[in-house]
Specification:
The chain is rod-shaped, with a radius of gyration of 55 Å. The protein has seven helices and eight strands. The strands form two sheets. Strands 1-8-2-5-6-7 form a six-stranded antiparallel β-sheet. A two-stranded antiparallel sheet has the order 3-4. By secondary structure, it is of the alpha+beta class.
Amino acid sequence: MNKHEENKENNEIINNLYSNSTGSEKHNSNNEYSGMTKLKDDKESEKYIKEMHDLADKNEFKNNIIVLILGIIIVSIIIFSIIMNTSFMKPKTDVAVSKAVTNNTSNSSPGEKKAINPVDTPTKISEYLNIETNRTSVLKNAVELNEGSEKGLTVYLLAEILRSNDIAIPTKTSTINQLVIDLTSMGWKKNTDFSKLKKGDLCFTTDMPKRPGVPSHAYIFMSWIKNGKTDYANIIDGQVEEFSNILHKRNLSVSTTNKDKFSFFLRK
């Protein structure tokens, strides 16, 4: 082998070694790049998974809030329905009264308040005395005021009836004259027309002998014995010793041998 061929062969060996070295460096470089890329991808995956978890938690919280709001709305509707149903469960009498008031107010002009007429005093008294337990109660109280006696009981009884119907008669009132003064001082008016009598009116008879201006008796008119006739009436007074009851029959427009006739009534 000459020297020229020997140099050529050496050059080829050097070139091969260089090529292997370069290829090895490229392979190592590629491996490092691939590892860095994989590491980067893993971090991004973890970040993505965390974001998805956070989003799921937020959605779950929102869903809980929505369910809570819907629950509150449903409970409110149920409570409102119960209240509305209860408001309609009233006695028929209340409904009737409501209708009557509605009819009255519908006839009035806008802005005008239609007054409800109060029950007049005679009607109030007669309705009170139509109840037997009330009659029993006032009789008992009147006897107590009269120191346990049923004699001379009428004024005590009438005064107790008036007090039970919110008419302020003093408890010391014990005579017919005092009763007339008490009532006239409160604005009660005298009327001598017995045809105008109403149930519950307080009546007075003619005067006592030799005592002008002082009626001999007083009683409460309750009804006529016969419609269209004014001679006798059902009345209430304190003559329980004679009639055994505060409600009994008595002459009104006519006199009898023992009973004076009607003279006037007082009404407010």
